[in-house]
Amino acid sequence: MCEKQKWPVKCKMRRLLVTGASGLLGSRIVEIAREDYDVIPLHNTKPLHPDSLKLDITNRKEVFNLFRKTKPDVLIHTAAETNVDKCETQRKLAWKINVEGTRNVAEACSEANAKMVYVSTDYVFNGEKGLYIEEDAPNPINHYGITKLEGEDQVKKTCKTHVILRTSVLYGWHPYKRNFAMWVINSLKQKKKISIITDHFNTPTLADNLAEMTIEAVQKDLQGLYHASGSQRISRYEFAQQIIK
């Protein structure tokens, strides 16, 4: 067994593909995982890593060709259309990326006998209950949540070896992708007045922490469905106050 690894292989690093490697979460996973894995970042926007390969997950042939060439042991699938408003106005595009794209990589994982880690969202719930656990029945009320839940189903149906991680309000620094924390900071820097709702509660998740949780799920060979988020339940208004501090 290789000293750095928990895997029964002799000094051969497992090959890990990361879709959405130019995104907030994907870029953190790539940075953290490099020490213990042979990481291949995959992007479809601006590459953040010099060794990143371009991949359009909605192109099934392109996905399978890349998998056959790289022969991964694990895929972490973070690529998605996460703009909730855009998913409502461009529903076909959201379905193509979040459902059909996920199905393509799940089928490629199945053929390659690779483990798939799928990053999902708390938007699969309607928000009426709060503090959801894995056994609660999903009931999405917007198109983004519908597509991500269908993505979960595609993974379950297609890829025997998988783990699904649902997260909530991902935040952190990124050179060009906006998230709630960066929006608050940039607005204040520009001396803009901002209005924040007080009755919307989440468990905000720092991208670095979720990246570590995702890699831990691979290392422990977790299977099935898990909720992976920050530990503090907080309103958007209180979250904005903490960001300001």
Rg, Cα atoms, Å: 18 Å
* N-C termini distance: 46 Å
Give the mean pLDDT: 92
Principal-axis shape: globular
- Compute the number of strand runs: 11
Beta fraction of the residues? 15-25%
Could you list the spans in which at least 5 consecutive residues all have pLDDT below 50? 1-11
Oligomer: single chain
Notable features of this structure?
245 residues, alpha/beta, two-stranded parallel ribbon, 40% helix, globular
Characterise the protein shown here.
This protein has 245 residues and is of the alpha/beta class. 40% of the residues lie in helices and 17% in strands. The chain contains eight helices and eleven strands. The protein has helices spanning 24-33, 60-70, 84-89, 91-112, 143-158, 180-189, 207-219, 236-244; strands at residues 15-19, 38-43, 53-54, 74-77, 115-121, 162-167, 170-171, 201-202, 205-206, 224-227, 234-235. The strands form three sheets. Strands 3-2-1-4-5-6-10 form a seven-stranded parallel beta sheet, sandwiched between helices. A two-stranded parallel ribbon has the order 7-9. Helix 1 (24-33) links the parallel strand 1 and strand 2. The N and C termini lie far apart (46 Å). Mean pLDDT is 92; it is low at 1-11.
